[in-house]
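Next comes a concrete protein, fold included:
___
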Amino acid sequence: MKWVTREHVHVDRTACPWLIKKFIDPKAEFIFAPTEKIEEAVKTARAIPFDAPGVELGHRDGKCSFETIMEKYGLKDPVLLELAKIVHAADTSDTQVAPEGAGLSAIMTGARFNVKDDFDAVEKAAYVYDALYSFCKFKLLQNKYKDELGKMTMKQREDFLKRKMRKKG
């Protein structure tokens, strides 16, 4: 599938391609276009628009595009839901939802000055979202196994969490 969004990517427009490639369409191709050319790309390239004004997979009902894509494609992975809070906070500046959003916004703002183009930005940002996904999984596991972890030595906790981190789900 081809997907189209606005050029000059930032938080949502780097997070959404990561989400799409990891959980929806591993062979996805992306088009970055000026806002006024989005509709044309939808027609000529038969691309699915996201994070653009007036599109289904954009900001809607207080949600950012990352969240509307998750909703549309039925993505309910608890780790991904936790990550969505961070993306939302970074994209909307609502850091009450997730204080980590401020850091993600800062990283994606600075990253724009260290890339050749939008394709390069999305490619390099994938590492950040992979790391945040792992962070969210770690955070949920710590909470889930809080009592057991409290009875372990530091080395046992580390080994236990590493094993759990490698497991799917």
Observations:
- Strands lie at 2-6, 29-33, 48-49.
